[in-house]
Design a protein that fits this description.
The chain has 505 residues and is mainly beta. Helices cover 11% and strands 45% of the residues. The chain is globular, with a radius of gyration of 24 Å.
Length: 505
C-alpha cells in the first residue's frame, strides 16, 4: 500500500470523525468565529442545537433587513448627543457642565438584568470641594467609577454600584488612591478613565505649577480594583512639545495594555505589583494622531450570573478580535477625510520572535491590517470581528449608508453566497498628522462585506447621529431636525431629542 493511499485513508477517517461529531464541529465553529464559551452558563441545550444556532446567527448578519426595527425614544441627553456611550446593552452619558448622568437599558430581554438610573448634580460624588473629571460605567459588572479632584489638586476615584448608593460588593474598597504628586506640584489638566474586567486605568495630563519646566507630563495608573485600592502599576512620560501630540490606551484582555502615542506600545499588566512590562513596540508607518475604538459590549462579563447584563453562551476572543484606530490630520485642507486602521489583535499576542525593540510597520502591519479612508463625518463601531460603518453617499455626501464587514475566518462559509469576499490587497494614500502626504500603504486583512443599499439615512427631518453593534443587534441613533432660519437662509437645527432604532439579528 502506497504512502499516498494511507494518507487518503487517514484523511477520510478524520473527515468522517469530524462530520459525525457535533462536539468537534462546535469547537471548530467557535474557533472560526473567534469566540470563547462563557463560564457558568446553561449547558442544557444540546451541542447539535448550539452548533446550528451559532451558524444561523452568523449567516443572519449577511441578510439583515435594515427596514425592520424597533424604536426607542431618546430624551434629555447631552447637547448634540456628545458623550453618549454604549456598553452591555445600555446607553449611558455624563454631562460635565451640569454634573448629571444617566444610564438606561435598550429593549432589555426578560433574561437580562437591566439598570436604569439618573444622577442629579452633586450626587455622583459627595466629597466637599470636589470637581468631577470623568465617569466610567460598566453595566456588565454593575460598576460606576468617578474620578474627581479636591481643591483642584488631589485626585481620587470613587467606586460604587450602578443600582444603588452602596459600595460595590466585589470592590476592595470605596476609593482608589493615586500616586501622591503633592511634592512635585503637578496639577491635573486632563484625564481619561477606562476599565476592563478587574482593571481600571486612569490617564492624566499634568502641568507643573511651579514652572520648573515648560514640559507637560502624563501619567497612567492601573488598579486591580477587586483586590487593592492602591497600585504600583504606573507609566509616565513627557508630553511631546508638538501641537499634534496625542495619547490613548486600551485593554487587550485581562493581562495586556496597549498605549497609543505615535506608535503602539504593548505592555504586560499581569503583575500589578510593579511597573507594566514593555513587551513590544509596533511602529506606525507615519506620524498620526490616533484614536482607539475597542468593542465594549462584552469587555467584562461577570462570573456571577446575578450581575450579568447579557446572558450569552459565548463572547469574543480578546486574542482574535478587532481594534479600530482612526487618524485625522490637523491641517485645515485635510479635515475632509479620516484614515481608519482595522487591526487584528492576534498580532499583540503572537509575539514569538519579537523583542521589545521597535517592530517596523512592514513586519507586522500589512497582513494584520486593513486601511480605509473615509470622509470625516463617517461613523464606525466594532464588535468582536465585525465592523459596522455608516459612510456618506449621494450628492455632496448628504446621506449615509450602512456597511457591515466580517473579518472572522469562517465568514466566507457562513455568508452562504451573500456579500462580497475581499481577499485581494488594497492600497490607500495616507497623510501624516501635519497633512503632508505619507505615501501609499498596501494592506490585506481579508473580510466579507455587505452593503445595505436599500436604505439611506439623513433627511430634512432627521440625521444619523451614531451607530453601535454588539453580538445580537444593530443600534442607530437618529436626532430630530427642526426648521429654523439664519437671516434669510433656511437651516435645520438639531434638537436634544431623537430616536434609537434597534435591529435584532
Amino acid at each position: 500500500m502506497s504512502i499516498l493511499t494511507i494518507l487518503l485513508q487517514v484523511c477520510k477517517a478524520l473527515c468522517q470523525t469530524y462530520m459525525s461529531s457535533s462536539e468537534l464541529q462546535y469547537i471548530v465553529e467557535m474557533s472560526g468565529q473567534r469566540l470563547l464559551p462563557v463560564p457558568n452558563t446553561d449547558n442544557s441545550i444540546p451541542v447539535s442545537k448550539r452548533l446550528q444556532l451559532l451558524r444561523d446567527k452568523a449567516h443572519a448578519w449577511f441578510k439583515v433587513d435594515i427596514h425592520y426595527f424597533e424604536t426607542v425614544p431618546i430624551t434629555r441627553l447631552p447637547y448634540r448627543f456628545r458623550g453618549i456611550k454604549f456598553a452591555g446593552g445600555h446607553l449611558y452619558s455624563w454631562n460635565a457642565q451640569e454634573d448629571t448622568a444617566t444610564i438606561f437599558p435598550i429593549l432589555p430581554k426578560s433574561s437580562q438584568q437591566s439598570i436604569q438610573r439618573n444622577w442629579l448634580p452633586g450626587t455622583l460624588c459627595s466629597v466637599p470641594n470636589s470637581y468631577n473629571l470623568d465617569v466610567f460605567m460598566d453595566p456588565a459588572q454593575n460598576l460606576i467609577a468617578v474620578v474627581y479632584v479636591v481643591d483642584y489638586e488631589t485626585a481620587c476615584i470613587n467606586l460604587g454600584a450602578l443600582d444603588g448608593d452602596h459600595i460595590h460588593p466585589q470592590a476592595a474598597g470605596e476609593r482608589l488612591f493615586l500616586l501622591d504628586e503633592s511634592e512635585n506640584h503637578h496639577k491635573t489638566i486632563g484625564v481619561r478613565l477606562k476599565g476592563f474586567g478587574r482593571h481600571i486605568a486612569l490617564w492624566r495630563r499634568l502641568d507643573n505649577e511651579q514652572w520648573i519646566s515648560s514640559d507637560e507630563t502624563w501619567q497612567l495608573q492601573i488598579w486591580d480594583w477587586q483586590h487593592s485600592m492602591r497600585s504600583n502599576s504606573i507609566l509616565s512620560g513627557v508630553v511631546p512639545d508638538r501641537f499634534d501630540a496625542t495619547f490613548d490606551f486600551c485593554f487587550l484582555g485581562n493581562d495586556r495594555l496597549l498605549v497609543i502615542t505615535f506608535d503602539l506600545n504593548l505592555y504586560s499588566i499581569e503583575d500589578m505589583s510593579q511597573t507594566p512590562e514593555l513587551l513590544a513596540c509596533f511602529l506606525m508607518p507615519v506620524s498620526l494622531m490616533l484614536r482607539c475604538l475597542l468593542p465594549t459590549d462584552d469587555i467584562g462579563y461577570s462570573s456571577q450570573p446575578q450581575i450579568q447584563t447579557r446572558r450569552t453562551m459565548y463572547t469574543s476572543d480578546p486574542t482574535h478580535r478587532l481594534l479600530c484606530l482612526t487618524a485625522s490630520s490637523s491641517c485645515a485642507d485635510s479635515f475632509s477625510s479620516t484614515q481608519v486602521f482595522i487591526i487584528s489583535t492576534r498580532i499583540f499576542f503572537d509575539l514569538d520572535g519579537m523583542a521589545a525593540t521597535p517592530i517596523p510597520w512592514q513586519h507586522w502591519g500589512p497582513s494584520n491590517t486593513r486601511i480605509f479612508r473615509h470622509p470625516y463625518h463617517f461613523k464606525v463601531h466594532i464588535s468582536g470581528n465585525r465592523v459596522l460603518q455608516a459612510l456618506p453617499v449621494g450628492t455632496r455626501n448628504s446621506e449615509s449608508m450602512l456597511h457591515l464587514m466580517d473579518f472572522s475566518p469562517l465568514a466566507v462559509t457562513n455568508r452562504r453566497g451573500l456579500g462580497r469576499v475581499v481577499k485581494e490587497p488594497s492600497t490607500i494614500y495616507i497623510s501624516d498628522s501635519t497633512g503632508r502626504s505619507g505615501g501609499s500603504l498596501t494592506t490585506s486583512l481579508p473580510y466579507v462585506q455587505v452593503v445595505f443599499s436599500d436604505r439611506k439615512f439623513d433627511s430634512a427631518e432627521s440625521e444619523l447621529e451614531n451607530i453601535w453593534i454588539d453580538q445580537d443587534r444593530i443600534y442607530m441613533l437618529n436626532t430630530d431636525l427642526e426648521p429654523a432660519a439664519f437671516g434669510s437662509d433656511p437651516i435645520f437645527v438639531k434638537q436634544p431629542i431623537g430616536k434609537l432604532e434597534v435591529i435584532d439579528i
